[in-house]
Amino acid sequence: MSGMSVREVVVRRLNLPMREPFETSFGRETDKDVLVVEVHTDAGHIGYSECVAMASPVYNEETTGTAWQMLSDFFVNQLWDQSFHEREDLFLVRDRLQPFRKNQMAKAALEMAVWDAYAAEYSVPLFELLGGVRREVPVGISVGIQASTRRLVEKVEGYLEQGFQRVKVKVRPGYDEEPLSALRREFPGLLLMADANSAYTLSDVPLLKTWDRFHLMMVEQPLGYDDLVDHATLQAAIDTPVCLDESIHSAADVRKTAKIKAGKVINLKLGRVGGFAEAIAIHDACAEYGLDLWCGGMLETGIGRLHNIAITSLPGFNLPGDTAPSARYFTEDIIEPAVEFSTPGNLAVEPLCGVHSRVDRDRLEHWTVDKRTLRQGESS
Ligand code: OSB
Ligand code: MG
């Protein structure tokens, strides 16, 4: 067999309504401006992926627009002379994109679509291709900043009734102690954590130390989005485990985290780390250095959700992730059927040979606002 090769790549920009806005310390997201990448193989299979870059550069430096540009001008071109015979060849996509600086979410969108296409072409379940073993994964929920503490408590109550296994609340200076105290008072045994998205600084260490009384599972990315050193200072001062999100882009970052004790937990997002190959390396590094690991979310559509579920099936993901059922944000997801609980608080890891069988082409087309087809030799 001559192996899988790529005939063309389609990049789509979608604008999808969200059921409710999501507010964090860096802003408010009301609808979903998102890229979907399709990798079409010579044999006629299609691999899909979702680019998790946001509309504006507030979580990291990327945007939907910059990802569109990076893919069209630089990244897709790297695929034309590559053919994929065995699993090891898939790691070459990461290696080919490595010389280009940063832009991990744009890189991930292409890399993951190639893995997804390979799963389709060779009829191998994507989760197995990644090294997954688990067939069901536990799910928590990330709750955005609410208009009132009462509203927050009501929402959390509803989520617990649905079965979510842990609750993460977004915090920022001025919206922290009150919601955390209220939730701890109402739900004494709740697995509770806080995510600050870099809203605090070293001068807040004394404040963060007082949060030990809330017995949080962890506090996620309290300090600088690009920092490790100050997080180490913080971790030495508090009992609550520090979890790193924004700061982690590679297995090397995990090694550095362990070396300087910048945190005890890693939130892995496929987009932020450049895709599946680096995610596997991070998974292995967390096991090597004894860090806890879970899979974060970026308010994905079903395509991104199915990929998050597939990577979470690897054995080292030992804490509930942020990937909720589709209905959390979308009345009508672009996959059919939508992601739903298999049992309350759990998602099934389905043996999908890539996600193509779940993509609803009509809905994908319906929500597409821009589309570009890239082929070898055609200038962009
Ligand atoms: O920091 O984990 C984060 C959403 C968008 C950007 C950053 C983050 C989040 C979430 C939501 O916390 C996770 C989800 O429900 O997908
Ligand atoms: Mg986070």
What does this 3D model show about the protein?
The protein is an alpha/beta fold. The protein contains twelve helices and 14 strands. A hairpin with a 2-residue loop joins strand 1 and strand 2. Helix 1 crosses helix 3, helix 2 packs antiparallel against helix 3 and helix 9 packs parallel to helix 10. The radius of gyration is 20 Å and the shape is globular. It binds 2-succinylbenzoate and magnesium ion. The site of magnesium ion has 7 residues, from loops.
Number of helices: 12
Number of strands: 14
Widest β-sheet, arrangement of strands = 6-7-8-9-10-11-12
How far is the first residue's CA from the last residue's CA? 31 Å
What is the radius of gyration? 20 Å
List low-pLDDT spans. Answer: none
Oligomeric grouping of the chains: single chain
Listing every helix as H and every strand as E from the N terminus to the C terminus, the arrangement reads EEEHEHHHEEHEHEHEHEHEHEHEHE
The shape, in one word, is globular
Say which molecules are bound, naming each kind only once: 2-succinylbenzoate, magnesium ion
Estimated share of beta-strand residues: 15-25%
Helix content: 25-40%
SSE blueprint and pairings:
Elements: E1 4-24, E2 27-41, E3 46-51, H1 64-75, E4 83-84, H2 87-97, H3 104-121, H4 126-130, E5 136-138, E6 141-143, H5 149-162, E7 167-170, H6 177-186, E8 192-195, H7 205-210, E9 219-220, H8 229-237, E10 242-244, H9 251-260, E11 265-268, H10 276-289, E12 292-295, H11 302-312, E13 346-348, H12 361-367, E14 368-375
Parallel strand pairs: 6-7, 7-8, 8-9, 9-10, 10-11, 11-12
Antiparallel strand pairs: 1-2, 1-4, 1-14, 2-3, 5-13
Helix pairs in contact: 1-3, 2-3, 5-6, 9-10
